[in-house]
Amino acid sequence: MTSQRTRERLIQRLVDQGIGDQQVLDVIRTTPRHLFLEEAMAHRAYEDVALPIGFQQTLTQPYIVARMTELLLAGGPLQRVLEIGTGSGYQTAVLAQLVGEVYSVERIKPLQVLARKRMRALKLRNVHMTHADGNLGWPERGPFDGILAAAAPERIPPELLRQLAPGGRLVIPVGGENQQLQLVVNSAEGLLTEAVESVRFVPLRSGTVRS
């Protein structure tokens, strides 16, 4: 299930799909994706597919994790990154190995509790978590050099744009039935937005869930 050969097949698939950042590939190669799934699903951990994690949420497809991370890092090293939608914690763990500090927001408390345990198990001590509405970001900890969202709003929440530092990069899926992954750069000329590719994410919802 977790053999090196299985992981290498996944990495080769990502390379074949155009992922070129060697740091991102190395982190995905060594991060134990099976730890972020229930035991019944763990045998599928190294397939390049999204998988259910409960509460109508999913563990993002490895290609999309790699693509979004690569886009976020393309402007250079990042110290402070905001993640919207901790979910299982897999994307969180990938980011934590590539940036200075990760500030992760999750609206579903039981998912956050599990993700926090996984961060401890992996000894990732540069992750900070809060149970809150992702549409609002984490203003007390901003501004952020990078923001990555793992759920899709119909339109980019203004609060997230306000928390993007000068020169910062936001990677976010946007739309309803038809979603586009977008890259927003807070440049000296203002906010520059680029549509990257079609994607399919769970919607970014408002409010919080306790249980």
Euclidean distance between termini CA atoms: 31 Å
Low-confidence stretches: none
Largest beta-sheet details: 7 strands, mixed
What is the number of helical segments per DSSP (H or I, 4+ residues)?
6
Class from helix and strand fractions: alpha/beta
Please characterize this protein's 3D structure:
The chain is α/β, with parallel strands linked by helices and 211 residues long. 28% of the residues lie in helices and 28% in strands. The chain is built from six helices and nine strands; from the N terminus they run ααββαβαβαββαβββ. The chain has helices at 4-16, 22-30, 62-73, 90-96, 109-121, 158-162, and strands at 51-54, 57-59, 80-84, 101-106, 127-131, 144-149, 164-175, 179-187, 190-199. The strands form two sheets. The protein has a seven-stranded mixed beta sheet with strand order 5-4-3-6-7-8-9. A two-stranded antiparallel ribbon has the order 1-2. Helix 1 packs antiparallel against helix 2. The model has no long low-confidence stretch (mean pLDDT 94).
List keywords for this structure.
single chain; 211 residues; alpha/beta; seven-stranded mixed sheet; 6 helices
Write the layout of secondary structure elements.
Blueprint: H1 4-16, H2 22-30, E1 51-54, E2 57-59, H3 62-73, E3 80-84, H4 90-96, E4 101-106, H5 109-121, E5 127-131, E6 144-149, H6 158-162, E7 164-175, E8 179-187, E9 190-199
Parallel strand pairs: 3-4, 3-6, 4-5, 6-7
Antiparallel strand pairs: 1-2, 7-8, 8-9
Helix pairs in contact: 1-2
